[in-house]
Every structure is written in structure tokens, then in C-alpha cells.
Known about the structure:
Elements lengths: L11 H8 L19 E6 L8 E7 L2 E7 L12 H5 L13 E4 L7 E4 L1 H19 L4 E5 L5 H15 L4 E3 L6 H11 L16 E5 L3 H4 L1 H12 L3 E5 L5 H4 L3 E3 L6 H14 L5 H7 E2 L1 H7 L5 H8 L3 H13 L3 E5 L1 H4 L4 H15 L7 E5 L18 E2 L3 E2 L3 H11 L13 H9 L5 E5 L3 H4 L3 H8 L4 E6 L11 E4 L8 E4 L4 E5 L12 H11 L11 H12 L11 H7 L2 E2 L36 E2 L18 E6 L15 H6 L4 E4 L1 H7 L6 E5 L4 E8 L7 E5 L28 E8 L5
Parallel strand pairs: 6-7, 6-16, 8-9, 8-12, 9-10, 11-22, 12-13, 16-17, 17-18, 23-27, 24-26
Antiparallel strand pairs: 1-2, 2-3, 4-5, 4-18, 14-15, 19-20, 20-21, 23-28, 25-26, 25-28
Bound molecules: iron/sulfur cluster.
Amino acid sequence: MEVYMATLVAQPESIxxxxxxxxxxxxxxxLDPGVVPDKIVETHCCFCGQQCGIQLLVKHNEVIGYEPWxxxxxxxGKLCPKGVKRYLQGAHPDRLLHAYRRDPANxxxxxxxxxxxxxxxxxxxxxxxxxKYGPSAFASLSGASLTTEKTYLMGKFxxxxxxxxxTDYNGRLCxxxxxxxxxxxxxxxxxxxxxxxxxxxEVVWISGANVAxxxxxxxxxxxxxxxxxxxxxxxxxxxxxxxxxxxLFLPIKPGRDVALxxxxxxxxxxxxxxxxxxxxxxxxxxxxxxxxxxxxxxxxTAKITGIAEKGILQAAEWWGRAKTSFLMHARGIEHSxxxxxxxxxxxxxxxxxxxxGREACGYATITGQGNGQGGREHGQKCDQxxxxxxxxxxxxxxxxxxVWGVDPAELPEPGVDAYEIxxxxxxxxxxxxxxxxxxxxxxLPDNNFVRQALEKxxxxxxxxxxxxxxxxxxxxxxxxxxxxEDEGTxxxxxxxxxKINKAINCPGDAREDWRxxxxxxxxxxxxxxxxxQSPREIFDELRIASKGGIADYSGITYEKIERQYGVxxxxxxxxxxxxxxxxxxxxxxxxxxxxxxxxxxxGRAHFNVAKYTPPxxxxxxxxxxxxxxxxxxxxxxxxxxxxxxxPLVDQCPDPFIEVHPMLAEKLGLKEGxxxxxxxxxxxxxxxxxxxxxxxxxxxxxxxxxxxxxSANQLTISAQDPISxxxxxxxxxxxxxxxxxxxx
Length: 743
Ligand code: SF4
């Protein structure tokens, strides 16, 4: 197949020389024990969806270190390796201090320009493109690491200022299968329980979640549950660190999770391990589901999933007989062309057990990105308005339009997902793009195609604090803000709204992201609705815009968050304390209004037949292996931050290919050899790690690296038909020994 090689403005090495990644290490004030900080700021880690509390030490407008924040109840001072090194991203040599324009005459590819001039150029290009091709020829892509205030602003900016339907976010690569499944089953998209409910559960079931590396502090909850007597069941193609300490490990073939869930439900029904009274009183749709899982006998389930029948029977018995339980899943089941079916299969098991909506009886999806939860609630998704409102619902449009002071008819209709935006760019239907804190050239699958599409843009502006790998293709780069340079809210994996506090000011010409967006709207002479003076003002408007919606923040204030160490939404009134556990009798529910615990008009949860289909691309004679991708503990997502933090790079400098000893022997590979993995879309040559913790028919590559080291050169852009999440967790590859590393 043809592999496109898009042209960068300069040699990659020259761009790297100027913009990094360079490594930040502890030096100067950071190493001097005699330095007394000017202030200590209680805030949160900038990385994953756990959002651990941390105290940043600040001296001379520089973050010089950290201290544990023992009082914050989620992590009680504990931090993972990324958390303890996060302070090293401040005062970093790669920090963007100026705006830049693409400049082929500059050996590094970009030349600094005055900020105002860059903003003017952005506005001129938006005007030019929209005048020539129409408003929808300009798109925006934003990130789920941004504060909720910024994500709210990005949704509003696309609809009110740009007037384009084409806006989406990188949670499309993370949380959307879970979100869609939760809404179909429960009517609401949030973890049903706080993590404290894990501790007292009799059985903890973890599917497709490399908890110890991707959500490290959750490990502590699981281990405490185990200390309290819980049985821990882990389902994964790899024996990840949490798998090494579980009671039952089920080594599933990638992409077959719904088959396992259906098989467990089959056994629950057959053995009478279901809660008839709960099903009768609080659900609909059980009969067709029971009929559908009849065919999922242990023998068939074992054949499809690759798990021994004995393991399936044991898991069903432990899950079926438990009095209390907690089921968690993450991208392992969600990054799939049938991710929503996988999620529904998991929820069916929970609902059939009746163990939800009470203490120690829980269900949650573990968010990945820092604001993976809040970032999917208030309008930066292509089909969504604030408060988890629906852009295609006339009542919702009318309400939000009234808050924004615009005619509902002016709001664009729902757009398309982030990958489809890239396809539209490739087809020249979209000519201009603004991205903020999104690095699609690393994080989207089949990234040779993404690179080819980006080069077709007439104009691309990237807002970020480091020059991420995609911003290297930009015409204009605008310097945005680090998490510690602004304040705002984030909603954690638990559904707890927490407060990020400002520790330092933006350096150089860099601006808080919300100011950058407002500056563009003013330069466009479209300032209506973009005159906020602070994140607090944005939050106050968000509270009104979310009022009456499912994700109702109207009773949340910055002060209440600080007083309570976070507020769980929904929180519909000033006197309301928030809702740590959803679906409890009497808990606030704007849809059922007292008729029942779930967020449907009749208050009942929905069972859904979860259909099994094989992955979009299964192994065959030509590509006989399965590739699965994921994270390592030292890095975060596309690596824009962590590939710049020295100690984290020292821990894991490069990606690798995990291979089982049996496969290694068959292919003549040994530890440290170079090997080339090939799919129908690309190739990658990396060093081999021979491990007994992976299925022999599967290889694993972590995805945090760019260019020739990128795992997403191999992955497939097949998407779930409902959530549009790409299938990162399985595609067909072949593997062979390489003589040397790639040049
Ligand atoms: S678990 Fe997540 S939020 Fe906590 S310290 Fe680690 S990366 Fe940061």
C-alpha cells in the first residue's frame, strides 16, 4: 500500500533542536534544600483522570517541587511516578514563550511573531476560509486535559463564534464507548459510585484496565479491598501488574470481551445467581437479553475468548454468588469497533446481579485523561451542549441558546467525530483547523493517513504549551497555558468536581487558553459571549447552562469544592451537597423525578442485548498475530509532557514490543533484538522484550511515541458505529527479526 510522507517545514531534527523534546531534570533551586518556597499551592496532578491532590512548591514564579497533600481524600498524599515528577514540566526549556509562524526560511521551521500579529493572522485566515468555502470549512479539535471551563468555552466558541458544526475532542479516543454504553443502560454517563465503595466489595472485577500503570492510585483501593477479603478478578490479554496480584486471571483474546460477559450472564441465569426482585422492579429488557445469552454456553464462550472453561465457571460463581461487588473497566474493552457492546455486556452483568446504587455495590469506568469526565459533559463533543444536553434536541438548543444570547436556529446541527474531521480534511471539505491540547498525529490510528491529511489544510493553528508533534505542521502556533498557570475545575474519574489552583503566571507571551480563544473571537469581530474576565466567570455561566441538565453543576461553587474536597455532580442547588453515589433511593434525578433510580422517565435501567462480532481485522495467513496497544506507567498519552521529563524518560526511554517466549522462539527472537512489526498500514521497528505475561498470539506496543516509533502507524481506523472510538486494542500484524534499528 502507498505510505504518504507529508512534508514538514524543516528537517525533524532541526525542529527538535529548537523545540524539543529536551529533558527537564532537577537542578538549581529544585535541588537546594535551603530554598524556602514563596508559597505552597494545594492543587492536583496534571495527568490522569484520578486527579490526585498535590501541593506545589513555588519560588520566584517557578514550580520547584511538591509535597504530598494528605488531606485530599482520594489519594491521601499518595502519588505515582508521574505525579512525583510532574513539577519538572514547569520552567522547562521547551516551554513556548512566543507565538510562532511557519517559516521555511528559518532552519528550525518557525520564527517568533508578536502575539497580537499571530492572533490577527489567525482571524484573517478564519475569515478568508469561511468566506470562500462557508462556515463549516473551519474545524476545531480540543482536549480532555483542559479544565471544564475551557472545554465549555471551546464548545461555545465553535458554535457561536466559528458557527461550525465541526468540533470534537480527544476524549473521542478515550471515553466515548463508556459514555454511550452508560447512557443507553443508565441514562447518565458517570461512574455510578465513589471509589470508597471498592473497599468493602466482596468481589472486584476488572476488565481491560491496566490499573497499576494507567490509574495507579486505584491499585491502592483494589489492594485494600483484597486485604478486606475481596476476591479480585482481572480480565486482560496481558498479565499486567494488577493481574499479578489478583485471585483469578482470565487471559482473554483481544476484542472478545462481550463474549465473556455474555457467557458469565448465561451462567448467572442458569444457576439462579440473579436478583429477580431488582430486575422486576428497576429494569426493562431482561427477557430478550436472557434469550440472547442462551447460546453463550461455557464451551462456546471458551472457544471465542480463548479462556479456559474452568476459569469462566470460577469467575461466574464468584461474581454470581457475591453479596457485594464492584466492576470496573477501561480502554481495554472500550477501544474497540464494538466498544459500546462490550460496555453494555459489562453493565448487563451488574444489573442482573442487582448490585448497584448502594454501598459497596458499584460500577465504574476508569477515565484516562485528566478531565476525561468533565471534558465530556459540557459541549465540546460534536453532538453535545452543556449539562450533557443534546445538540439535536430542540428544547436543549433553545435553553442553551437563551443562556448564550443567540437564536437557537443559529446553532449548528451536530457534526462528526474527530477522525471523521480528519477524513473531511483529506477530502478538502474542511480547509482550516484550530487545535488545542490535542496531538492527533501521535494519538489517532493509522497516523500516516493523518499526516497526509494535515498537509492538505490551507491553514492550521495549534494552541499548546509545548510544540507537540502535530503542531510541527502548523502555520501559526499560539502559546497556551500549563495546568499550574491557571485556575478552574476538573471532574475526576469518580465524578468529583475538584479545583485546580493557579500556582504561577504564564511566562513570556503565553496566555491562559481561555484568553487566547477570546482574543481570536475579538480579532474576528465576533466578541459576543466571549468577554469573560476570569475562569470563575466562565464557571458561573456554565453552572446556569448546565442547570436542569443531567450533568447539573448549578449548585457547585468554587468555595463549596474547596470546603468539601470536591463536589460530586449532580448538584442542583446551593444547599445540595452533591451526589457521590448515583441511583440511591431518593437521590436527585431530573429525568425520572422520583419514579425510580435510573435516568429514564420511568426510572428503570435498560438491559441491552450485547452483540458479539469479531474485531474489524482478525489475524490471517498474511498477518497472523494480534497487536494490542496501551500505556506504561512512566508516560502519559501522546507523550507531549512526559517525553520531556528527564526522570520519566530515564525510566522508559523508548517503546518496545512485548513477545511471549513461545512466539519469540518460533520467530528466532530474543530479548533486546530488533524486530519489525508490520500491519496493512505501516511498520515499526523496535526492540523486543520477551515476557511470559502476554498471550502467545498477541504482541503489545506502548503508544506514547511519535514518528518512526509510533505504534499508531500500525493501528486500524475502524470505529465503533455508535461511539466512533477507534479500535486501538486489536489489529492484525506480522513480526520478523530486523538486523538493526531504523535510521
Ligand atoms: S495516579 Fe494519575 S493523577 Fe495520581 S499522581 Fe499518578 S498520574 Fe497523577
